[in-house]
Design brief:
Number of helices: 7
Distance between the termini: 77 Å
Largest sheet: 8 strands, mixed
Strand content: 15-25%
Shape: globular
């Protein structure tokens, strides 16, 4: 019986370069692949230094692993993002807003911002980055600028509050009725309104509240300029 190794040797295939998934040393394509696994389509190239909104689902699928890695890196210190646990979560239809940018010299994406489109505008719910300080600074500056533009808003606390409100200058929403309207009836009923921050009254803003997010009671304030 002819063995596989005999076939390989007779065809003069370089065994050092044979990898079962068609990838050779250094990640280069391997023409001598042993499987007929289809090659994944390459994503498009993104212009340097520009934030691009990704609306095409096929393109989002192509960059899903790359985007997930950025998000995973950004939230690693707190155990990961509550909703984004794997690349497939990037395709969750409830997240309808994705914006990415390639900032530095390498060809990979460096930052991402995501959220959802609502009747009040874009609710920004998360970010991702590659860990490089200049890229992080660029992303936070861009987000702060967005939040000072009509049709953009966010719920914040902790480092995000400091970055977007205290440093970035994004306005806070201090009117209880407006905040409850934006959050909706269900969330509003579960919300405890404080006004001043309950443990640090010196904190900027008079629209602090506590509500459950991901099973945890978190104290937040809304920032930005939603369309109400």
């Amino acid at each position: 019986m002819i063995k596989l190794i005999d076939i390989l040797l007779s065809e003069k295939i370089d065994l050092k370069n044979v990898f079962m998934k068609g990838v050779g040393p250094g990640g280069k394509p391997n023409p001598d692949q042993l499987t007929d696994e289809p090659k994944s389509e390459e994503r498009k190239e993104y212009p340097k230094g520009k934030y691009i909104q990704v609306t095409d689902k096929k393109e989002l699928e192509k960059i899903s692993k790359e985007v997930y890695d950025l998000i995973d890196n950004a939230y690693a210190s707190i155990g990961g993002n509550v909703k984004v646990k794997s690349p497939k979560d990037i395709l969750d239809p409830s997240t309808t807003y994705w914006q990415v940018a390639d900032i530095d010299d390498d060809p990979e994406l460096d930052v991402v911002g995501f959220g959802k489109e609502t009747k009040f505008g874009t609710k920004h719910t998360g970010i991702g980055h590659d860990g490089e300080k200049p890229n992080i600074k660029n992303l936070l500056s861009k987000k702060s600028k967005d939040l000072k533009t009509t049709g953009n808003y966010i719920e914040v606390s902790g480092p995000a509050f400091k970055a977007y409100v205290q440093i970035g200058g994004a306005p806070t929403l201090d009117d209880e009725e407006t905040v409850r309207t934006i959050l909706g009836d269900k969330r509003s009923k579960q919300l405890e309104w404080h006004g001043q921050h309950p443990t640090d009254p010196s904190k900027q803003g008079k629209g602090w509240y506590t509500r459950k997010i991901g099973g945890q009671s978190l104290t937040k304030i809304m920032a930005g300029i939603p369309e109400v």
